[in-house]
Specification:
This protein is an all-alpha fold. It is built from three helices and no strands. 0% of the residues are buried.
């Protein structure tokens, strides 16, 4: 029962995302064009990359700590 519900919900999400993506391609995105024209798009990309790099660094650090704790528990 739960698996069927999750599967149905997943199918619904996939179809709705594709419909949203198709409608977004038709319309022009004025904000992105403005950022690109003013050169601010590079700031936006840099901030996104910094956030992503920070998350990756945090995940790697946590993974190392977990591995170290697992090794200590095995002893």
């Amino acid at each position: 029962m739960l698996l069927n519900t999750l599967f149905s919900f997943g199918i619904f999400l996939l179809t709705s995302f594709s419909a949203i993506a198709q409608s977004a391609q038709v319309e022009e995105i004025a904000m992105a064009d403005t950022f690109r024209a003013e050169g601010k798009i590079y700031v936006v990309v840099a901030v996104i990359l910094l956030l992503f790099a920070g998350l990756v660094f945090y995940a790697v650090r946590i993974e190392r700590k977990v591995n170290r704790l697992e090794k200590e528990l095995e002893k």
